[in-house]
Design a protein that fits this description.
By secondary structure, the protein is an alpha+beta fold. The protein is 29% helix and 20% strand. The chain is built from seven helices and 15 strands.
Length: 306
């Protein structure tokens, strides 16, 4: 009696999940033990097995139909039909920011921070003060999306003036503003090393926006736009709280000595911005960090686009 001639595939995934050795990935299971073969050989073996079964079924009565089927199988083998798995979709590559070389005699605009903390723009790099030349934004006036761009280019003006050209580095707008302001002397602050031996007793209720209570201060409802990282004894921290309350600016007040999470949060932000954490307050104004309290610099970041 003739053996069962049902059409079946003799391919199964390998124990390694269908990959096997590099360039392979299919195990063919025969009468004895499985052996690993390439996808091409697996396809050839499958086609041969299917052809053998069809020959048994169709020979010798219908040779013309057999010819058509054999031709189809040969064509299928030639076009690469096999048991090869489709590869998973690959993630799209991350966008990259193109490099930019700035020429001294080119048509550029330069945005820098002046001693008061205001951001100014000029087309004459030689007038930029020496102490703030390290981090200056460079703008191509021919582009129309400069005001909305989240990424900006910065250049070292000293290098530009010396060599006649300089490579511009991409930065987020927040990182640029933080780094530019960090070139200035810090605002009013208290070194942590100057902490009094014993906390000074404070009369009246604690300031609104204390981080231990998780609230915001400022005398007006709304999401905090400023975070004060300070201490209870720091005079500059008190001045900052008073200013924001008087102006009705919503703020969060976080004591880095009483709140370990606030100290960790400040440490992470300061490390990314390259700022020290040896003095307070450190102000986070809409993602821009300021070392110390300086009213003019705060107002520049709250109301003046760069």
């Amino acid at each position: 009696m003739r053996a069962d001639t049902r059409l079946t595939s003799n391919l199964r995934p390998s124990p390694s999940g269908g990959t096997g050795t590099p360039g392979h990935g299919v195990a063919c299971e025969g009468a004895d033990r499985p052996r690993r073969v390439s996808y091409f050989e697996a396809a050839r073996l499958n086609c041969a097995a299917m052809l053998r079964v069809l020959l048994e079924r169709l020979a010798p009565a219908r040779p013309h139909r057999l010819t058509v089927i054999v031709s189809f199988l040969c064509l299928a083998g030639a076009t690469g039909i096999s048991c090869k798995r489709s590869l998973p979709a690959q993630p799209a590559p991350s966008p990259t920011v193109a490099g930019l070389t700035v020429l001294k005699d080119g048509r550029w605009l330069f945005t820098y921070v002046d001693p008061s903390g205001q951001f100014e723009t000029t087309d004459k790099p030689e007038i930029i003060p020496e102490n703030v030349r390290k981090v200056v934004r460079v703008i191509d006036p021919g582009k129309t999306d400069n005001a909305e761009a989240s990424m900006v280019y910065t250049v070292d003006i000293n290098q530009l003036m010396k060599d006649g050209k300089a490579a511009a580095a991409p930065l987020s707008r927040q990182a640029f503003e933080t780094a530019a302001l960090a070139q200035l002397p810090p605002g009013a602050n208290s070194p942590l090393s100057s902490r009094p031996a014993a906390p000074v007793a404070q009369g009246g209720p604690p300031p609104t926006g204390n981080s231990a209570q998780g609230g915001t201060g400022g005398g007006s409802a709304g999401k905090a736009v400023v975070t004060i990282y300070g201490t209870s004894w720091c005079g500059a921290c008190k001045a900052a709280r008073s200013y924001f309350q008087q102006k009705g600016i919503p703020f969060a007040d976080k004591d880095i000595e009483a709140d370990a999470e606030a100290a960790r949060e400040l440490g992470e932000k300061a490390a990314k911005a390259g700022l020290p954490t040896d003095r307070v307050p450190v102000l986070d104004v809409r993602g821009r960090l300021l070392l110390g309290f300086d009213q003019a610099r705060v107002e520049a970041l709250l109301g003046q686009p760069t």
